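To start, one record:
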Amino acid sequence: MSDKPSDDQPSASEIPDDVWEQFTRDTERDIRASAPKEPSARARMVTERLRQQDARGETPPGWRTDPVRQERNVRTARRRKLWAVLGVPAAVAVALVALKPSLLPGDPFGTGTSQAADPLPAETAAPTAPPGASDPETPTLDEPFAGSPALRWADGEAGIVLPEAKAVGAVSKGRVEQALKLAKKLLVSANLDLATVRGERPEAALSVLDPQQPGTVDDLDTALRSPSREHDPLTLFSRFDPDRVRLVGDVIKTRGRMTLGKGSHGGVAVHADYTFVYPVTRADGSTEVARTIVRRAVDVELADPARYRVTAGRLLLLKYDEEIGNSSCDVHDGYLHPEFPLSRAEATRPTGPTTDPYDRSRSLDDGDACGTVSRT
């Protein structure tokens, strides 16, 4: 074999010195890195001790099997799985809310499309305009006030908020407070008591009226016993025929106010102006819901028994007016007769002027007893 280098391989003398030195250093480094290393004496002792403990089942905590570390790893894995599971529904929910913010409770983005309307504060002065238009929703057995301004009104007796009692002229604060409480009792019994609404006798309302007042309690008794055009209990009491109509649920919406003044019989006069909204359905099992709206203005006085022939602790009924929305006209049997839009015949439609039964800015003198209502 010839030692002569081939023509295509350079001889050592032809390789530059700096290149040869770099090649030598790299080669020595690689040899040292790949050579097996003798473990230190301490490493051999630790390895042997662990081997013996492992053989006896005594592997110390923290060496590959630390239970705290394992539990932490498990919890981390669980969290990752939980977020992975929740991630898709959360993304879907975010997409739905982005498309329809009204799905959120309240109105967090100020869109004005809140599903749960905030209740109105108590009325303390006469409104200057009717309530704004509501969404044209159809009332149902589950949502009998849907599409009505009364949705934001107070429920029942909570809507009768008494003004602060204070002395009126020579009438003490205590007497004024008594008059306010009696006036509220009259309104509640006459318009909100479920027995009264079902057509029963309003005993509590009659009990606060003065029996010595000529032509008052006797006339009301006659109206309740034998209703007619001349003696109509609906002028003071809200009543439905239980054989034809039933109340939907037990909530009657209420809105109004009371004011105080000096009486003409040495006492304190109370003026009450309230509107009541009754959701009803037919008693034959129909699911159609209608609403009847009744507004009442009542003036009473707690007179001075020391100066006038009156019964102490009873009210004089001075004046009472009413306006009824959605009830058949010219029926004088002592009951309200709501009309249901889906079953109302053209011949029974009212022909009088159209009024808004929710408009509390109007005087009752401005209305027509048998007109057409713009909404219910």
